[in-house]
Amino acid sequence: MALHSVSQDQGSESTAGLDGISSLLAAIVDSSHDAIISKTLDGIITSWNPAAERMFGYTAAEAVGQSIRLIIPSDRQTEEDYVLSKVRKGERVDHFETIRQRKDGGRIHISLTVSPIRNAQGVVVGASKIAHDISERKTLELLLSSIVTSSDDAIISKTLDGIITSWNTGAEKMFGYASAEVVGKSIRLIIPADRQGEEDFVLDRIRRGEKVDHFETIRQTKDGRMLNISLTVSPVRDCYGILVGASKIARDITVKKWMENELEVTRRRLTEALASRDQFFAVAAHELRNPLNVLSILWQIPDPSRSGRVIEKSRVQLDRLKSLIDRLLDISRVRSGTLELDRQKLDLGILVREVAGRFATTNPDRQISLQCDPRIEVNWDRLRIDEVLTNLVSNAIKYGLNKPIEVSASGNTDHVEVMVKDHGIGIAADDLKRIFEPFERVEELSQVKGLGMGLWITKQVVKAHGGTIWVESELGHGSAFVARLPRDRV
Ligand code: ADP
User: Ligand 1 — pocket residues by CB below 6 A?
Assistant: First the structure.
């Protein structure tokens, strides 16, 4: 039959020539990897080459004479009616992708080309059918499509003009647009206004056949959220190697970016904390050495009858050393969580007066006014609360610019509030929280000595009593530290 059509084209070949061509064609048909089958207009198989035997599992002897429907699955039988109707009209069916059934019941994907066979008079008398096995390609296609579908990354394809041609489930989830909403539209839809230039850059590279790799940028979701994404855009070529578009894989790196940021903040904090700690050791060593220096000078004097003044000066220096060492011990106790309270009944008013009195003696030029409710009975750790008051008043003196200081204590049946107020340098809003953290000091104050641990210890002691401490302050207008504690255990 193929021979017939050739003889039509050739016109007047000799019989010998025809024989030669006939055997050449027979050899081609026999050695073809594609199934080549001929059939009548009723669909009865008239020839069946070796590749058809391999592809469908029937031998030529089994197949020839049978209806071609033998290899058509029951749910696809109507396809044969369609194919035959086209062939009868002398038309051809080209690269028709379908499924056929093997003798063993297995199914194979094939690409079918069916052409009419004409007799010498040009009348269609049958059909030749070439079936190409595309199972492998189909498997790969399915595999690829399941990867694309199940990917958490957005996988998008677009034309060289940036028109979206495919949009996977990952893209739907990431950007909030359904595939039907965006296919056919420009990819610029998800690009924020201030980044539209990036698309020109990407398309430019794609048109040059270049890839854009791990490009970190921001894209906008349907509901207006900005996502940090990492983008890889690759050129897509057709089977002839011609550039036809681009495939784009976008990974949401918002969490990664956030973590990087957090890491950077933590790293910076750690560096600062280490620097503060170094500074802490330097100040602590200095503070410890000062009284020791004074002591060693005092006791170097070869004076057999040491005067009371030397002894008194020594006692002051020893007290300084003791309080510094106590503070260092407190820091380590709070840090290791072993700060224990020794609660006892006490009158806060008396304690406040005592502390203020101490400061008044050592700072006779400072005006410290007191305002306490009568009889504020509490069940607190006396030494620790003394420490809290001492820290607050000592800061008010250090940072109070020699202006008056007010200390007050008042309470109701449940709580007591203690306030230490100065009219000194004040604290900037940004620093209000941070100064209660360990080693934190306000930078510009480096000329005023301090370990940056006082307020932290104060806060820990107040917390251990079940209370809170805060500061109200305005830069340049002074500060008021308020500690609010329950009278008794909470
Ligand atoms: P320091 O030993 O540095 O005084 P603190 O923990 O007691 O440590 O205080 C931390 C920081 O808080 C101080 O370095 C200072 O910057 C700020 N500060 C504390 N009290 C006052 C205050 N009354 N007025 C202004 N700033 C203060």
Answer: 391, 395-396, 399, 422, 424-425, 427, 435, 440-442, 445, 450-456, 479
